[in-house]
Design brief:
The protein is an alpha+beta fold and 451 residues long. The chain has ten helices and 24 strands. It has two domains: 241 residues, P-loop containing nucleotide triphosphate hydrolases (Rossmann fold, 3-Layer(aba) Sandwich), CATH 3.40.50; 184 residues, Coagulation Factor XIII, Chain A, domain 1. The longest helix has 16 residues.
């Protein structure tokens, strides 16, 4: 293994023996390999990849795909059935809740226990103890047995420890999903700092987090490595496979008539537009900060998935009069038009879109489901359906963005995807007044005064 390699996995496999009855284990011992009283389950099968030092790699896949098994093998808490793993550096891991903790020990005692397992001396732990406690922020519970902790407190203490052991490689599983918003933000700030100097393996079902954090991604499917590469492309493959696995019968429930009428009244009478313009609009639009956005042509050949019962035939941005746009200024009103053709009768169609940045992170999205949830709407076979979304184009930071449209059938919770096109329409912001963040919110007024 070369010096700049952090982790090398070569033809790694992990097989479990599944017994139908407890007594079959005894029969297997007595059979001495002449007969099998078990069936094999391959949690991992011939997985091979290499991670360079300083890389941040996301691991995604459905439940049961082998993600946690792979991480445990890398951390050394499981032994492989075949293949090899080479790790160059100290590994610190946040895997399942409570891993490495003794439930009878107090939080303080577990800090010393866990940190010593990572190779820190008693003196080093003492020097960092106050920082660990401050990071965990669990107050007086540090002196209570960890068996009394909530899942969130477990994660706080475990993450605080691995954040202070000078690890070269950090492995983070789904455990962060149980933390509160404030603590998760603190962890993310730490991870971004760690990424500047160390190697990070980040396992999550949140594809947006993987796209945002990682330089590459690994997709596992039923124990096999299905894809490794650009996080955005891997996330799209995962999303397509996930939707395809969920395709099935649609179960649409009729709501109570009174409740429906109440909802309809709210939709028709409450949600009325209240538009205003940015107080600096004239100044910005007369300067080099004007948010000029170029709109490219619809690409029907972009990566897509779905049943094919309906297909998206056109995606355009229009002005308020319905004329196609090739340029638009951020902060002005536009119409996103999505046209679809039905190849069979589509009951309860849902047409929607994602507006994403260049990394594939969703900035905003919407669909027709709520607007038409009270109406019986269908597209007859052979007809074209047009959906139009009117909104104010955000003031975007300079860079590339994309619109991914889709047509589905059913309800928001239970639907079949007929056609989903990734990055069907590209837009490019060439100038911007955005100082921070990904887009600007128009300010009704900005005032500054002394008192």
């Amino acid at each position: 293994m070369s010096y700049d390699t952090a982790i090398k996995v070569d033809n790694l496999s992990k097989c479990y023996q599944i017994y139908n009855k407890p007594r079959d284990r005894l029969w297997q011992m007595m059979a001495r390999g002449h007969k099998k009283f078990y069936r094999e389950f391959w949690a991992l099968n011939n997985v091979k990849f290499e991670i360079k030092k300083g890389e941040t790699v996301g691991i995604i896949g459905r439940n049961g795909s082998g993600k946690s098994t792979l991480l445990q093998l890398i951390c050394g808490t499981l032994n492989p059935s075949s293949g090899s793993i080479q790790v160059n550096g100290r590994v610190a891991a946040l895997l399942e809740l409570g891993a490495g903790f003794n439930p009878e020990f107090t939080g303080k005692e577990n800090v010393y226990l866990s940190a010593s397992l990572y190779g820190l001396t008693h003196k080093e732990i003492e020097d960092r103890f106050d920082q660990i406690i401050e990071f965990a922020d669990i107050g007086q519970f540090i002196d209570q047995p960890v068996k009394t902790y909530s899942s969130g407190m477990f994660v706080r203490l475990a993450f605080a420890v691995i954040a202070h052991v000078d690890a070269d490689i950090l492995v983070v599983d789904e455990a962060l999903s149980v933390g509160d918003a404030y603590f998760v933000q603190k962890c993310m700030r730490f991870l971004r700092d760690f990424m500047q100097k160390g190697t990070l393996l980040f396992c999550s079902h949140d594809t947006s987090a993987v796209v945002n954090l990682c330089s590459s991604a690994i997709l596992l499917n039923q124990g096999r490595l299905e894809m490794i590469g650009n996080p955005k492309e891997v996330a799209e493959r995962y999303l397509a496979a996930l939707y395809e696995s969920f395709q099935g019968d649609i179960n649409i429930k009729k709501e109570d008539t009174v409740a429906v009428n109440n909802i309809k009244e709210i939709i028709e009478n409450t949600f009325k537009p209240n538009e205003y313009r940015d107080a600096r609009e004239a100044l910005i639009n007369s300067s080099t900060l004007r948010n000029d956005i170029q709109i490219f042509r619809f690409n029907p050949d972009s990566n897509a998935f779905g049943t094919g019962a309906a297909k998206i035939s056109s995606v355009k941005l229009l002005d308020e009069d319905g004329s196609p746009l090739s340029w638009v200024v951020g902060g002005t009103n536009v119409i996103l038009e999505i046209r679809c053709i039905a190849y069979q009768t589509i009951l309860n169609p849902i047409i929607g879109f994602h507006f994403k940045d260049r990394l594939g992170q969703i900035l905003f999205a919407d669909n027709t489901c709520i607007t038409y949830m009270l109406e019986s709407f269908k597209i007859e076979s052979g007809l074209e359906c047009v959906a139009r979304f009117s909104f104010t184009m955000p003031i975007l930071a300079s860079g590339s963005y994309s619109i991914s449209p889709a047509i589905a059938e059913g309800t928001q919770e239970n639907h079949i995807q007929h056609h989903w096109i990734h990055d069907a329409l590209i837009v490019e912001a060439h100038a911007s007044s955005v100082c921070f963040g990904v887009f600007a919110v128009p300010m009704k007024s900005i005032k500054m005064f002394t008192i």
